[in-house]
Write a structure and sequence with these properties.
The chain is of the alpha/beta class and 336 residues long. The chain is built from nine helices and 13 strands. The chain is 29% helix and 21% strand. The termini are close together.
Length: 336
Amino acid sequence: MINAPLPRIDLDEELQELLIKYCRLKHGDIWKDPLGKHKVGCFDVTDKSKLKKLMSNEKASLAIQDPPYNFIAFGKKKLEKFIDWCKEWVNLTYDHLDENSSMYVWLGADQSSHFQPLPQFMAMMEAIAEGGFGSKNLITMRNQRGYGTQRNWMSVRQELLYYVKGNPIFNVEADYTGIPKILKGYYKKVDGRETDNLERGKSEFIRAGNVWVDLQQVFYRIEENVNGCFAQKPLKSIQRIIRASSNENDLVIDFFSHSGTTLIASEILSRKCITVDIDPIYSEITIRRLERFRETGKTGWQNSNPFYEEILADKKLRKYLLDRYDIKIKREKIKN
């Protein structure tokens, strides 16, 4: 088995400099899928002219946005700038969506700082709601692992805001939320025998709700893991959104690609995807993840990483990972 992890790329500027030469996109560039389905842009998404060029007058039926809310650091001034920035990309999202469409936004809530930026973002959306997006739901996804101290409840939740433009579709039977294994009960007679929910599969009376507890949080041991990416969302969560709020061949947009999960989910579910990332490294990871999926059927790198071959051939990069992180990357035999 390959054992070639990468540390968080966003926290290490020297590592970024070592990796960027292996990225095919520079700022302002656009990658077009050879099969004609998807596009990846590398630029600041608030650049209206570049975004217009990328979209090519196409309108999307669904937007899935995961802005890097961690960078606001805390502090009123930075928070205000973050919300002003959010207003820009939200308005641009609206402009590039069909008249009947949906937008989902992943957003955090810092419990040690008055839950910012979640309430401020919601207030901003309310302020621009007239003639714009309408609120639809607040979804909570449960993480298996949490964070916090011994003096507080551990935080194991991620918030997902659901907004609509016009009157979009909602495929109510598109996905099923399994009753969590942690909850035994819900007894029901089946073929004359009383059973509980652990024994039963799908039920026509149970559908996806706004508390998601049946998804696997991404970590290094599962196939879809992309080493180096710190904010990767579970593939199943993005697939659930896409199934519910779009149809086959629809266009899905994502202005914060990061690990490329929205693009991979769109590929799997026969949708088109246009995605953007300001960082050439994450743009490259997004492209490589699609290429890897098409070549091998694998959705991530598990214990390896997107730049494995380049690291093997780059003595300086290998030495840096060894000296800084005690990560020794070498050629491993892959068992079929």
